[in-house]
Amino acid sequence: MAEHILLRHRDIPNIDRLEVYRQQGGFEAFQKAVASLTPDAVTDIVKASGLRGRGGAGFPTGMKWSFTDRKNWPHYVVCNADESEPGTFKDREILTGNPFQLLEGVAIASYAVGARVAYIYLRGEFWPIARELDKRIAELEAAGLLGDKLFGTEYSLRIYTHLGAGAYICGEETALLESIEGKLGQPRLRPPFPPAVGLFGKPTVINNTETLANVPLILQRGAEWFRSFGTEKSPGVKIFSLSGCVNRPGNYELPLGTTFRELIMGRGGGIAYGHKIKAIMPAGNSSSLIVATDEALNTPMDYESVPKLGAQLGSASVIVIDDSVDIPWLINKTVHFFRHESCGKCTPCREGTYWMSQLTERIAAGHATAEDVALLKAVAGQIKGKCFCALGEFSIEAVLSGMDRFKDDFEAKVSSYE
Amino acid sequence: MSKQVNLTIDNQAVTAAEGALIVDAAKKVGINIPVFCYHPKLEPAGMCRMCLVEIGRPVIDRATGAPVMEGGKPKLQFGPKLETSCTTPVSEGMVVITNSEKVKAARKDVVEFLLTSHPLDCPVCDKGGECPLQNLTLAHGPATSRFLFNEKNHNAKHVPLGDLIYLDRERCIQCGRCVRFQEKIAGDPVIGFYNRGRQMEIVTFSEPGFDSYFSGNTTDICPVGALTSADFRFGARPWEMKATASICTHCAVGCNLAFNVRREVGGKNGSPSKGGIVIKRALPRQNEAVNELWICDKGRFAYQYSESPTRLATPLVRKDGELTPASWDVALEYAAEGLLGESKPGQAKDLLVIGSGRLANEDLFTLRKLAEGAGGQAALYSQSGGGDLLAQVGAAPGTNLASLGKGSVILVVASDLHEEAPIWFLRVKQAAERGATLIVAAGRPTRLDRYAKYVIRYAYGEEAQIVAALGDSPRRAELVEAAKPAAAAKPAAAAKLVEAAKPAAAAKTVEAAKPAAAARLVEAAEAFGKAENALVFFGSDGLGQSGAQSVAQACAQLLAATRHVGRPNNGLIPVWGRANEQGGWELGLKAANLQTALQASTTAYIVAADPYGDDPSLPAPSFLVVQELFLTETARRADVVFPAQAFTERDGSFTSGERRVQRYYPATPALADCRPDYAISAELGQHLGLKLEGRSAAAIFAQIATEIPAYKGLTYRRLAETTNATAIGAAKDPRDAEERRCADLYYSGAGYENTQGLGVQLPLQTLSPALSKPAAAPAAQLSKTGLLAVPVTQLYDLGQTVLPSALLRQRIGEAWVGVNPADAAEAGIEAGAAPAAIVQVVLPGKPEWRAAARIDERTPRGVLLIPRSMGLPLNAPLPGASIRPVVRRDSQEAASQQPA
Questions:
Q1: In chain B, which residues fall in CATH 3.10.20.740?
Q2: How confident is the prediction for chain B on average, in pLDDT?
Q3: pLDDT band at residue B829, thresholds of 50, 70 and 90?
Q4: Which stretches of chain A score pLDDT less than 50?
Q5: Which CATH architecture does the domain made up of B326-387+584-712 adopt?
Q6: Cβ of B48 and A346 within 8 Å?
Q7: What residue spans in chain B does CATH classification 3.40.50.740 cover?
């Protein structure tokens, strides 16, 4: 790929400095939007680009913006930078390497939905990044690119950063809103959805960091340009966070629809230490386990194709599992993560993840019987479809798919005990 | 009526109001969907996932907007997942399935999950026997456990959230009912969740812990044994106890109570039960028109005075200057002789009879009969006034605060409802949250202000004029004129409107604020005039007898002038300090100026009142008979003391501030030789040569019903009537008491069932034409010298019905006086010092009094707030007060150590 769209700091040195970013046409898109386009026109361009949310669900971004309730004001924009999914580290690179592009994206989104205040919610561990962002926001205000009466119009915008306190659940958009409001980070009842009742009870658009980072170039170069990347239904590029048993882990910005093989074997340099690939988790810890067959490796990574393998693209954090990995050990890890991060609001997730962790712990240690394995499956099934939010539902993805697709690993564990 | 929608639940056709939740719609037709986190009085949370059901909705053709038909029926689309029926509103054509295998399996799954972290210590749990988790486990849960016992999480079991409420963290199922109750219903968000997942726990973040007047209610709505009260925990098992209906005696709300009693040896609080019946706990009894499901902590925990070991147990007669035990015959004889003096039988002309609102209607009626028969005078012991107006302008029958919302106005004058009548505070707050316009007129900030649309500040003494201005437009115009900046120099009433609210230092702001305050008053008056319904509460904040009388008069005229009289949800509600003060007024007793009344009498018979405790300077009669529960200051001065029964030991009826007559029943046997007040009075009457009914409360009530027009036609039977409509969830067969009990139990821990009477509201008399004309309210003549000391009420005081409660005693706190910072500075008292500065309060004609100064802006400039029943007797506003600092011993020492 010739040129990065999101990870532009890899091509352009010092783009994290405002003058460099402006030399590259930075903030022209925002100025053009504010000075010469109506908010609806901006939304229409984003709609036409086909940009879909990069946080995991893949919801069309322009459509989300158009849902904001226009009878209820003010509106807010919130950038979700709570990047907490194990295996996901793409937003961090944008935030540190190409921060002004994100800030411009936040600004354009705010203009498009009529928000005069926007928040960037960062996970608590990102405090040094938040400090840098604050400086950059101050620079933008000093440069007249943020603040009151921008570009000679009546439009004003302030952007604030807000740090979480180390809870995975706050990446869930309504828990995130609660957290900004100073409350316990737990998801809210839906409906109403945030575009109707969001932050401080007002219509709110919440977009992922990567999503918003796409917006300035869409405005600058046009929806058609954006659509020239990726597939018909999943246009654009995506940052794939590649980790696990590969030679070259890291972030790879590739068009949507690139195959697993291209990412893992091509860019990622294949499997380390001569091992064979066994499984793929395409969406971090929240993923189902895909059996790494030839067919799976040849599958394009986009929002439509991955589900055919019984998994989701999610945030595209691809964890590669090789044949040295014991699947019961792996799911014990994922279950412990969810048990630790369950917010406790609903019964199935709070109690179910705890129960599962007790079982996977014993299974992984080889201290379990076939009954325990059957019970694990039953407990996971009991959680399914009953949770308040997606966290609980995600907690069983790896468990159920792992038990279903890697039976031998479990049988080996049990027989060694019996 | 709101729009109705039709749906099907388990093949039953159901009609429900648009917006109703499925769980409630189902309950109406007798389908019980199990819940833990849902409570019909709270906002839905959807947390516990117990109420999952299958929901199908008709498929709508996008083009035509009509339902798509399939085989003659609307085509249904069921969601891929089960949905929570406690958060989903009903919609047209919806089909709900609550009994499929899928739903049953889901319930079993959820119960099993809950039990994995539950200690299952039912045999030692207070909730065992009335526990929703227990009941729903039996009904829906698995029979055996698949969770390894020793993999259970163990948590702290005796965590005091405060001194009243304990938390068992193991038992908690994290449903959040308590948190939501405190936040939404009580408006006291002092508890919350901390941490997450399995570690999520209830914590308190107030000092002292769980500092709320409503905290006890959380133990009722807790669906497990996680929250228990210090009063009841490990006290008894639910099935060992019997419930007796009662009425709370602590304020004029008339909350319906149930006392749970059982026989035991020992009793508590040192009460000497030898196998007798004792009260184990007080619970709210559901009355949707009075207290819904709630009671305040005073009502819940202060009942203990009835079992106090310091109660009077035998009659006492003064012999050689000492009060010594005597038999009833001797005591009655001696009392009658003393009261008669030289007069002929039935002619005790100089007799003053005093009874308080702690007494039942039957007692007060008998006292009046006795006084009349003897030719003496009967007085109601009250520091308030205006009760005679309520027969005309009181709350009309059918009034229910729960039905007030948009279009209604509630005006609260001179009352800190949160301290004076907590349940009214709670219900007025809720009415305001439903959209009723709340106007709070007070001399200082109160907790109700935050829910008010209009807050009107007046200077103490101007209460009646402000109320009059609300009803009288020329007067309002005058105020607006006076408030204009140019005219501000004039000593106009409007200046006082805001003066009181602002510190003197901010004089400029005051100038600017005056027109705003006047405009606010005009707006509030307009809202009041236009309102469909209007209720007015008047309390006792800073008022004495005459002040209360003129405020009541002004309120009555305001209501009459705006035609807010005689219709349900309209009228005047007095915030009396005692349960049956209204009954006293209705039965013809009036509040008297005791200074003059006692001066004019040679003998006195004082029942259930402690005037000499409240004001030691009152003149003493030559012969005094006192009827009491305790040896009060007044009883100590008596020649004869009769021991009366507590309200828990007898039956009777009270008339609440909303003029609702309600019955209460004996819960425990009488202590020793104590007798009911009415019986003692009737016997004393007989000894005086009068024929008075005293055989039973019911017989006296029958007499009241024939002689007092307002009570005409009332019988004890009518007072005991109930309707099933008030139950939280109707049972399939409302006649089946057992089923009804279970239906209630299903939603709550405690049984709230009301089977012993909802009471009856008294009818109103025709309005006298004099009231319809606005009359000029007399300005209070308060001298401007010194500081103005005003009496205010705090819920937990040193009253004799509060002190014996060991639990509440800790919450009463020290004696305090409210001082404005500017006044404190003038008196040389340092604000913000910790501990609070101790000051000497000097009131003309009163003994000096030492108290902790609460120095803040909540006390208006020039005013001292003196809490009632906290040690300094003050029954009415008193000018000429001053304060001076008390030099602390430690600072003296510090000073002496300094080198000269």
A1: 4-114
A2: 87
A3: confident
A4: 1
A5: 3-Layer(aba) Sandwich (3.40)
A6: yes
A7: 326-387+584-712
Banded pLDDT at B894 (limits 50, 70, 90): very low
Residues of chain B with CATH 2.40.40.20: 787-897
φ/ψ bin of A230: left (φ > 0), alpha (ψ from -120 to 50), beta (otherwise): left
Q: What is the DSSP string of B90-147?
A: P-TT-EEESSSHHHHHHHHHHHHHHHHT----GGG-TTTTS-HHHHHHHHHS-SS--S
Q: Residue B325: is the preceding peptide bond cis (ω within 30°)?
A: no
Q: Which residue has the tokens 């020329």?
A: B474
**Candidates A84, A170, A188, A345, partner chain B, best to mutate (most B CBs within 10 A):** A345
Q: Where in chain B is the domain with CATH 3.40.228.10?
A: 388-575
CB contact under 8 A, B196 and A185: yes
Kindly list the structural domains of chain A, giving each domain's residue range(s) and its CATH number in brackets, ordered by start: 8-227 (3.40.50.11540), 237-322 (3.10.20.600), 327-411 (1.20.1440.230)
Chain B nearest-CA distance from A349, in A, is 8
Q: What is the mean pLDDT of residues B863-875?
A: 89
**B81 contacts on A by Cβ (under 8 Å):** 385-386
Q: Of A346, A355, A385, which is closest to B147 when you measure between CB atoms?
A: A355
Distance of CA A337 to the CA centre of its chain: 17
B197, A386: Cβ pair inside 8 Å? no
Name the closest residue on chain B to residue A345, using Cα atoms: B47
Give the CA count within 13 Å in the CB-facing half-sphere of B19: 3
Fold of domain B122-229: Alpha-Beta Plaits (3.30.70)
What pLDDT was estimated at residue B849? 87
- State whether residue A335 sits within 8 Å of chain B by CB: no
Exposure class string for B630-651: b at 16+ Cβ within 10 A, else e: bbbebbebbbbbbbbbbbbbbb
**Residue B547: which residues within 8 A CB-CB, separation 6 or more?**
B385, B461, B463, B464, B780, B876, B877
CB pairs < 8 Å spanning A and B:
91
- Which residues in chain A have Cβ-Cβ distances shorter than 8 Å to B44? 189
Q: Which CATH number fits domain B787-897: 3.40.50.2300, 2.40.50.180, 2.40.40.20, 3.40.140.10?
A: 2.40.40.20
Taking contacts as CB-CB distances below 8 angstroms, the residues of chain A near B109 are 348, 382, 386
Please report where in the chains the tokens 């009662």 appear, as a residue. B246
DSSP state, residue B655: E
Residues of chain B neighbouring A343 (CB-CB closer than 8 A): 196-197, 200
Q: Helix (H, G, I), strand (E, B), or coil: what is residue B197?
A: helix
Q: What is the DSSP string of B382-445?
A: -S---GGGHHHHBPBTT--GGG--TTEEEEEES--HHHH-HHHHHHHHHHHHTTPEEEEEESS-
Instruction: For domain B388-575, give the CATH number.
Output: 3.40.228.10
Domain B4-114 has CATH 3.10.20.740: yes
Residue B405 has pLDDT above 50, yes or no: yes
Give the tens place of pLDDT for each residue, B227-268.
Answer: 999 999 999 998 899 999 999 999 999 999 999 999 888 755
Distance of alpha carbon B640 from alpha carbon B619, whole angstroms: 18
Structure tokens at A308: 């055919």
Within the 351-380 window of chain A, which residues sit less than 8 Å (CB to CB) from chain B? 351-355, 358, 375
Scanning A373-412 for CB atoms below 8 A from B yields 375, 382, 385-388
Test B193 with A386 for CB contact under 8 angstroms. no
Q: Is B87–A189 a contact, with Cβ atoms under 8 angstroms apart? A: yes
Q: Which of A99, A61, A58 is nearest to A81 (CA)?
A: A99
Q: For residue B117, which residues of chain A lie inside 8 Å, CB to CB? A: 351, 354
> Within a 10 A sphere around the Cβ of B145, how many other Cβ atoms?
13
